[in-house]
Amino acid sequence: MTLFHFGNCFALAYFPYFITYKCSGLSEYNAFWRCVQAGATYLFVQLCKMLFLATFFPTWEGGAGVYDFVGEFMKATVDMADLLGLHLVMSRNAGKGEYKIMVAAMGWATAELVMSRCIPLWVGARGIEFDWKYIQMSFDSNISLVHYIAMAAVVWMFTRYDLPKSFRLPVTVLLGLCVYKAFLMELFIHVFHLGSWTALLVKAVLTGAISLCSLFLFVTHFHSN
Amino acid sequence: MFEEASEVFDNMFKSSFPLTFIVFLPAVLILVSPLPAEAAHEFTVYRMQQYDLQGQPYGSRNAILNTEARTVEAEVLGRRCVLMRLVDFSYEKYQKALRQSAGAVVIILPKNVSTMPQDIVQQFMELEPEFVTTETIVPVYFALEDDELLSIYAQTQASSSSQGSSSAAEVLLHTATANGFQMVTSGAQSKAVSDWAITSLEGRLAGAGGEEQPTIVLVTHYDSYGVAPWLSYGADSNGSGVAILLELARVFSRLYSYKRTHAGYNLLFFVSGGGKFNYQGTKRWLEDNLDHTDSSLLQDNVAFVLCLDTLGSGDSLYLHVSKPPKEGSPQHALLKELESVSASQFPELKFSMVHKKINLAEETLAWEHERFGIRRLPAFTLSHLENHRGAVRKSIMDVRSVSSSSLDGAGQINTGPGVDLKKLRRNTKLIAEALARVIYNLTEKGAQGDLEIFTEQMQVQEEQLASVVDWLTAQPRATQLVDKDSSLVNTLEYYLGRYLKDVKKHYVKADKRDPEFVFYDQLKQTMNAYRVKPAIFDLLLAVCIAAYLGVLYLAIQHFGVLYGVLRRVSQPKSKQH
């Protein structure tokens, strides 16, 4: 399509980040540099993950169309490193819980956006060929912002010493859901043969549910008094 | 935020050079990256003929195509690529597209021509010369249909026919749902091919008694012609002629290898190139033999020249002459033998002679024998066509196909193009018998008309003919595609060499200053069909995205509301404090 189409996709992908940054009050805390640091941590963690995957997970050469459940599950398990990375970012920042969570999540999600969507959008959306997948990709980046905020919140709660015993289980479950969400999505798409739009919708609903739950836990415990 | 960002960047660039490098190198790479060649569909297209013959331009003069697709149903065709299918093709529609200055025309042909109704094929064949003789500025391409291409055609047709109707809302909805296609060819502009050599081959069987014996020349051209060079397989015209010539070479080489059957005639075989371009190969061969050398079989004592052209089907045979043969001449003898053999051995065959004077005012010569006639050599052409304007001689529909009528063995007349092996064999047999009778002078020795010479081991072999025709029609043999090192020429040379002596290649190159023929390249290209949306769709999308972002902004601004609600839900007690 045209440069205009690229502009459309770009706006759809990036403006929510900008709005969130502005409206969450992060700009008033001078948090930009901290966000960049979080992004750098993201890069480092991804590099480690890639090295690990390349070393210990040989490429699976099964038949086409066959889904390797165990292999994919193991690969998803490597995403645990994200939790560690988020924890690392948050532990290095002093401040209120919300502030820590937002900084870590914003930096993390923005780094992902820049690293994994910028180039496909530039190359693809600007090409002659029109495809809905670039619009979908932009929507997907919005969803992943919500996802990372929720994930950071859950990690933060998990690392608190004053977390009551009764909260331990739901937080752990949420943590697991966050990590294996991508794997679950793949599974859904594979089992139910979802179209790209339906898959996006399912992803949005799943992410929305996870983040509502974590928000509920957050509100219940840490703002009770 | 931006001030902060610039500060960060400043620090970054001052502090570390590698970081700068990491940031800038990808940025530069991205900015200069070409647009990807990932297309919705990629298919091969074959361009219409483009050549100059005797200074006269023919065919489509353009090769570059980068426009949106439409079908003829659309109101406006200007600067669009018009898609047509052969099923509903008509010359009026084609003319309409050209009149509206369409950007290009793409004609979609079925994969298998034999599935088409016979009348459509016939009509298209009649039109083919028209396409080429009227010089067109825009590129004209032919594509073979497949499922993807048909679906592109259907979608284009749907969007083309709905134009100019309906309300604004419908049009808006339509822009969001319908697909347009941008057709783009990958190749460059067509340009003249310099120094193209047309190859011809000759070989001979020397008669008993040396060079002074009279010579019989057998001539046929091997190249094919059609509206698109890459699609012209030329089975009947003139694969059949080559097959017969090679078979004659085989049987007569056997006869000539025995002392008792070694006849007193030299046999000269000539497979000419450029036959569809005013017999360029033959012309040069004659010039070389008659003007530039002292001794040649062609110079003295030529009994006759027999040209074979389009002999693969039909139940009639015509001997085309430019001057009726005189009684007592070898030419007349062959005519008589052909008549008597066909009457006694092949009663279903109608044989007759057609007399047509050479018209030098015409741009091109009608038959190959006229090239010899101009040089005062006694010559004629044998063909199953009554008229040199027979559409099958210049058609891409002339492919190797076994028509159903010849399969079931019924005595129907096969009107469609293609080669019927039974008839090809019969024609070969007839020519071989008649030639043998002339060479051995059998009629004067009192042989009956139904005496068969080529029987038993000397059979005319149908498998042999079939394999030659299959081989010839396995690839397009248009004059522009057969260069001097092509496998076709080499195989022909090898085949002739198996039976004949002194097999030689002759090359024709057009004169540099005043070329008699000029060919152009870019005849086969890859075409990409990109799915595109109209500009209004982008605007619509922009409005939608702006609305979405607005809603998102409001939602984030009022996030506190959700927060409050959750708080109240989770702590009903705290509300009471």
Automatic annotation (TrEMBL), chain A:
Alphabetically sorted, this entry's keywords are: Cell membrane, Endoplasmic reticulum, Membrane, Transmembrane, Transmembrane helix
InterPro entries membership: TMEM147 (IPR019164)
How is the protein disposed in the membrane?
A: Multi-pass membrane protein
Q: Which GO terms describe its cellular component?
A: endoplasmic reticulum membrane; plasma membrane
Q: Where in the cell is it found?
A: Cell membrane; Endoplasmic reticulum membrane
List membrane-spanning regions: 101-123, 143-159, 171-191, 197-219
**Which Pfam families is this protein grouped with?**
DUF2053
Q: Which family does it belong to?
A: Belongs to the TMEM147 family.
Q: What is the official name of this protein in its record?
A: BOS complex subunit TMEM147
What is the source species? Answer: Chanos chanos (Milkfish)
UniProtKB/TrEMBL annotation, chain B:
Domain spans labelled Peptidase M28:
210-337
As for membrane topology, the entry says: Single-pass membrane protein
Q: Which GO terms describe its cellular component?
A: endoplasmic reticulum membrane
Q: Report TM segments.
A: 539-566
Any single Pfam family the record assigns to this protein? Peptidase_M28
Keywords attached to this Swiss-Prot or TrEMBL record, sorted alphabetically, are: Endoplasmic reticulum, Glycoprotein, Membrane, Signal, Transmembrane, Transmembrane helix
Stored CDD domains: M28_nicalin_like
BP terms from Gene Ontology: regulation of signal transduction
Taxonomic superkingdom:
Eukaryota
Matching entries from InterPro entries are given as: Nicalin, Peptidase_M28
Q: Where in the cell does this protein reside?
A: Endoplasmic reticulum membrane
Main location (coarse class): endoplasmic reticulum
Q: Which family does it belong to?
A: Belongs to the nicastrin family.
Q: What is this protein called?
A: BOS complex subunit NCLN
Origin organism is Chanos chanos
- Which lineage ranks, top first, belong to the organism behind this chain? Eukaryota, Metazoa, Chordata, Craniata, Vertebrata
This chain is encoded by the gene named ncln
